[in-house]
Amino acid sequence: MHPAMEVLSASRRALVVALALLLTACPKAPSRTDGRDTPDGEPAGRPRVEVKQDATANAALAQARAEAQAQPDKKKAAESYLAVRKAYPTTTAGQDALYNAGVLFFEAKDYANARKTFNELIFENPLYDQAEDAKHKLALSAMEVGAYRDAYQTLTSLAERAEGEKKEQLLREAARAAEGAGLYSQALITAVKEAGEARTPEDQASAVTKVEKLVEGRADFIDIARTQEGLSSSNPAWPVLQFKLARIYYHLRDWTRLEETLQRFLREAPNSNFAPQARELLARATRRVEVRPRTVAVLLPMTGRYQPIGEAVLRGVKLALQGSDIELVVKDTQGDVNKTGQAMEQLAFDDGAIAALGPLLVDDTKRAALLAEELQVPLLTLSRQEGITDIGPYVFRNMLTNSAQARAIADYAMNVKGLKKFAVLYPNIPYGVELANEFWDEVVARGGAVRGAEAYTHDQTTFTSEAKRLVGRYYLEDRGDWAEAVRDVQGEKITDAYRRRKAMEKARSGVEPIVDFEGLFIPDDWRRVSLVTPALAVEDIVTNACDPRDLERIRKTTGKKDLKTVTLFGTNQWSSPKGRSGLPELLERGGKFVTCSVYVDGFFVDSQRPATQKFVKSYREAYREGGRDPGLLEAIGYDSARMVRQVLDKQRPNSRAAMREAMAGLKDFDGATGRTSFNDKREADKQLFLLSVDSKGIKEINVDDKAAVRGSGS
User: Fold this and answer.
1) Is the pTM higher than 0.70?
2) CB 379 within 8 A of CB 321
3) Confidence check: pLDDT of 191 > 90
4) Measured CA angle at 278 (ends 274, 284), to 5 deg
C-alpha cells in the first residue's frame, strides 16, 4: 500500500472510532414531531414535509428577494423571507425563503437565529439542494453560540464526504469544535489527519501547530498513545507525538520505554526540530546508571531563612570527610521543594553521585525521598519526619525522631526506674500532641497507665489551672472531701462575710492533692518548662525526689512522713545554652523545681562516650575560630557522612544498588551520636543520651545496653 494511502486509511479508522465513542457517550435526542430542532446536522433521511411548486408563492419569494436586496439591514431583510415562509410553508418557495433567511442571519452574525432557521430547514428536508451549505453554516453557528459538540458532529460528517481544500477546511473547523467541547482526543485525531492531508507547507505547519498545542496539557497520555499507534512516521505530526510520549515516559520513570521511544524518534526523524532535545534526553537517561563511585552529594539549605541549620550540618559532614578522596557535591535546596527536586535530578543525572545526604526539612525530604526511590539513588535523610523510609528501599534516615524520644523515655522510666503510672502535660501544637500520643502509646504497650493529661496553649506563661487539674483541685465539686469541708464551714454558722470567706479559703487549701502518678512527661522547650515546674510545686507536686535534704525540709514543713514524689521527664527541647553562671539556663531559671528531672537527646557534648569525645575534640580543633561547641545537627551530619565514608572505603560499591545493599547492612557503627545500626525499615537504631538535671548541671545517665533504652524510627 502506498504510504499516503496507509496514513489516510489509519486516519479514517481513527476518526470512525472517535465518532463512535462520541456518539456512544453523547446519544442523540429523539426526533421531534413538532417541526422544531433536532441535533444539528443529523436529521432523518427523508423529508418531513411534502413540498410543491406554487406560482403565487414563487411570486412572493421574488418580491421578498427584491426587498431584501434593497434593505441594508440583513436581519430586517431576513424577516421578508420569513414572511414568505410563514405564508407558504409547504412550498418550494417557502423552503428557499427559509434557507435565504438563514444565510442572512448568518452573515449578520445573528448565530442563534441562523442556527434555529437552518435546523428547521434540514429537519423538514434533509435532501434540500443547498442542504450541505446549510449544514456547514449551521455547524459554524453552533460553534459561535458554544454548542461545540453539535458542531463537531456535523463538521466531521461533512468532512467525510468532502474532498480537496473543502475537506481540509472542514477538518480544521472540526478540530476547533472538538477542542471547544473539550473532546481533545477527537481534536487531536482530526488535527493529525489534517496535517497528513495538508497540500501546502503553510497548511501543514498550521496543522502541526495545532497538534503541538493539543499535546501540551490538553490531550492526555492515553489519547496521545492511541493516536500515535499505527501512525506513519511520514505524517508531519509524528515527531510531535513521538517526542511527547518520550517526555511522558521520562516523567513516569519508565526507562525502557523512554529509550525505545527516543531511539525510534532519532531513527525516523533525525532532522526534526525536537531532535537535539531528544538526543539530550536519551543521553540523560543513559547517564542515570553512570555512577562516580567516590562522589557523594549533600542537599541542604545553604541560603535563605534555614541557612544556619544547613551550615551546621555541613560543618559536621566536611569534618567527617577530611583526608578522604571522596568528592562532596553540595546542593543548595534553599528550603524550596522545587529546588530540592531539581537538585536530586542533577546529582543523579549530571553529577553521578553514588549516594546523597539530606535534606532536613519535612517537605524537602518528601520530595527528595520520592525522587530517590524513582531514580534509585540511596538517600540518607536527616529529617525528623515520621515514616519517611516507608517511601521505599532506597530511603534511609539518621535523625532523632519524636517516636524515638518517647520510646527511650518510656523504656528508662519503666524498665530502669520501675515506674508504672504517668501523667502528661503538653503544649497544644503538633510537636506536643505527637509526642504526648507517642509516649502514651509506649507506656500502655509496656503495661503502664496514663492517669492524666492536660494541654495548654503554646504561648501560655502561667500554669496554675493545669497543675490543679492534674491533682484534682480544680473541679472541687466532684470531690467528697471538699463537700464535707464545706458542710463543716456551714455548720459553724459564721455570719461575718470576711470570716466566712477566709474559712472557705482555708478549707480549699486543706484539700489534699491526688497525686496518682509517679512520672510527669512534659514535651516542651526549656523556657516553658522553667515556668511550668514552679506551678507544680504550688500544688504540692514534689519533683526534686533525688534531694534528701529538701525532702526532709518538706516533711517538716508539711508534717507528712510519706511523701509522694514525681519524676519529670522531657525531650531534647529541654537542652539549653549555658547562662551567666555557667550552668544551663534551664537550671538557672527552673532552680530546684527542675532538679532530679530526666530528659533525652540525640547528642550530648559532655558525654564520656569515647566516640563522642573524639568528635567533640576534632570539631573544636577544626572550628576553633567559631568558638562554639557542636550540637545535634553537627553531630548528625558528621556521623551520616562517616557512615557513607566507611561503606565506600571498606566495601567499594560501584553501583547505587550495591551502595544501597551495603548501607542496609550497616551494623554497630560507633558514632558521635551513639552506636548505630540500620533496622529493617532503614531507620537508624541507636542508644540515645539520657540526661539528668542536678544542682551542678546536666549529667549523662549510664544505662546498661540490656535496659533497651534505644531510639529508632520503627
Assistant:
1) no
2) no
3) no
4) 150
